[in-house]
Amino acid sequence: MLSKSDLSKKQLIAVIRSSMFLKEKFDAAGRFQKLKARFVAGGNTQDKSVYETLSSPTVSLEALMMVIAIAAIEGRKIATVDITGAYLECELPEGDEVIMLIDPIMTKFLLEIDDSIKPLVDKNGCTYVRLKKALYGCVQSSLLWYNKLKSVLESGGFVRNDYDPCVFNKGSNHDQTTIAFHVDDLLITSKMQSGIDSAIALLQFNFEQVTANTGPEHSFLGMRIVVTANGIDVDMIAYLLKILEGKVSGSRVTYPADDGLLIVNESSPTLGGGASKVFHSDVAKLLFLAKRTRLEVLLAVSFLASRVTNPTVEDDSKLRRVFDYLATTKNVKLHFIRGGLVELKAYIDASYGNDTRGKSRTGVLLYMAGIGIAGWTAKQKLVTKSSTEAEIVALSDGLTHVLWAREFLLAQGHDVGAVAVYQDNQGVIKLMTTARNTKQRTKHLNVRYFFAADRVESKHIVLVYMPTDRMIADILTKALAGAVFVKIMLLLYGMPR
Predict the structure, then answer these.
(1) Is there a contact between 418 and 344 (Cβ–Cβ < 8 Å)?
(2) Does residue 186 contact residue 179 with C-beta atoms inside 8 Å?
(3) Domains in the chain, start-ordered, CATH in brackets?
C-alpha cells in the first residue's frame, strides 16, 4: 500500500479507481452455483497509448461449434475447466506501473482485516495501492492472461490452430486432444480419457485454482452441453426462459416472422426513451441466443438489430412475435449426431430485391454432424439486376465464411476435400462451371464472379444444386411460414420427421 503524500503529481493523475461487484452465478441449466464477488480496476481511465497492443482473442463461435461437432462425430469425451482468479496468475511487467484507489467502503473492510494500514488512509477514507498482478478491469490484463495460458499449453505440447488463436491441439487422429477457450473457461475434447486427464493435470500444475468437470453435462458460455450415447445435445433453454420473463403474450406462434418483417413502415410512431432502451437490450439478448442455438430466428433478430437506434412501435410488435415464437418452441435443442465422417457442407442463398430499397439479402449456413452449426444473414451492399446476380453476390460473400471453416478443419487435421456448397440457382452453377462468355450480362460483377469461380476451379468447393424447398439457407433470407417453415426447420436441426 502507498501513502498519498508519497505520490507525485504525475502518479496521482494516472490513479485509477476500483469497484466491487457481487453477482449470483447460475449454470446453463439455470441452477444456482454461488454468489460471486469480483474486485475490479477502473481500466477505462488508463492511458492506452503507452501499450503497443492490447488485443486479446477469444474462441470464435464458429470454431467452438466445429470443435463440438468433431467431438460428437468421433465420440469424444468432453471436460470443462474454470480457472478461478485467472488474471491474478499474471505478474504485471516491470515498469508497467498501475496505482489504484480503494474507496472508503472497501478501505473499512481492509482495516478490519489489518488495522496497521490505518496511517495510510487519507482524509477522505481512501487508500492507494500499486498493483503487482493483473486485475480484472485493467486494460492489459486480458492480453497478459492469454499469453500466459498460451505459454502453458505450448509447454505441454499443444499447438495453436492457425485459424483460431484460442484452439489448441495435441496429438493427431485417434489420440488428439483439443482445447478451446474463452478467457478462463476451457472446453477440452478427446477420444482418450488419458488425454482429458493429462490436459487437466497440466492446468492444475500451473495454476492455483482449477475446477474441472469431467461428467456428461457441462455449462459453457451460456450453453448446456450434454454428451449422450448417440451424440451431443446443446441448448440454452434456461437462458431462454430467463429472457422470456415478462415478454410473452401467451399467444401460440409457430413461426417467428411474417412477410412484412423486412418492410419498414415510416409512419409507425417511434418508441419512447425508456422503451427504446428496453428494445435495444432485448434484441441484444436474443442475438446472443440466435447465433448459438436458435438460428431460425436469426433473420428476424438481425433485422431488428438494424433498428435499435430508432425503433418504432411496429418494430416492437415484430420483437414481441419473436418472443412468442420462442415461448412456443422453447424446448428446441441442437443434436450433433455421432458417427460418420468429419465433413463440412454449406448452403448459400439469396432472396432477390426483398429490401425496401431493392437490395437483396444473403443467407449462409454451415452444416456438420447432421445440423446447422453456424449462420449469417445480411443485406447485400449493392443493388443487383436479377436473381442470378444476387446469387453471385451471395456466393462471393458467403464463401468467406465457408473457406475459413474449411481451413480451420484442415488445420485440425481433417482432410475435408472440396466443400459441397449447395445452390438453388442452376444458372449460377452453370456460370461457375463452364467457360465464361465475355458478353454475359454479369460482367460488371467480375471480381465476385472470378473469386467464386477460382475456388471452384481450385477444388476448394464444389457447387451442388439443391431444390429451393430443401435450401436450408432460405430461412436466413426471407420470412418463411407454415409447412415451408416446418420443413426447413426439420432440415436445420435434423429433427425426426
Answers:
(1) no
(2) yes
(3) 1-50+93-130 (no CATH), 57-87+144-217 (3.30.310), 237-328 (no CATH), 334-493 (3.30.420.10)
pTM above 0.90, yes or no: yes
Return the percentage of the chain with pLDDT > 90, whole number: 80
Q: What is the residue type of 104?
A: P
Share of the chain above pLDDT 70, in %: 97
Determine the Cα–Cα distance for residues 364 and 359; give it in Å rounded to an integer. Answer: 17
The C-alpha cell 463461435 sits at 61
Determine which helix (DSSP H) or strand (DSSP E) holds 12, and give its type and residue range. helix 9-14
CA nearest neighbour of 369 among 221, 231, 220:
231
DSSP per-residue letters across 289-328: HHTTT-GGGHHHHHHHHTTTTS-BHHHHHHHHHHHHHHHH
pLDDT score at 439: 47
Q: CA 350 to CA 252: how far, in whole Å?
A: 30
Measured distance CA(279)–CA(323) in Å, rounded: 12
pLDDT digits (tens, 9 = 90+) for 68-91: 999 999 999 999 999 999 999 999
Give the pLDDT score at 384.
Answer: 85
How far is 481 from 319, CA to CA, in rounded Å? 17
Instruction: Report the C-alpha dihedral over residues 242, 247, 253, 258, rounded to 10 degrees.
Output: -120
User: Measured between alpha carbons, how far is 295 from 292 in angstroms, rounded to an integer?
Assistant: 7
Of 347-356, 417-426, 428-437, the least confident: 428-437
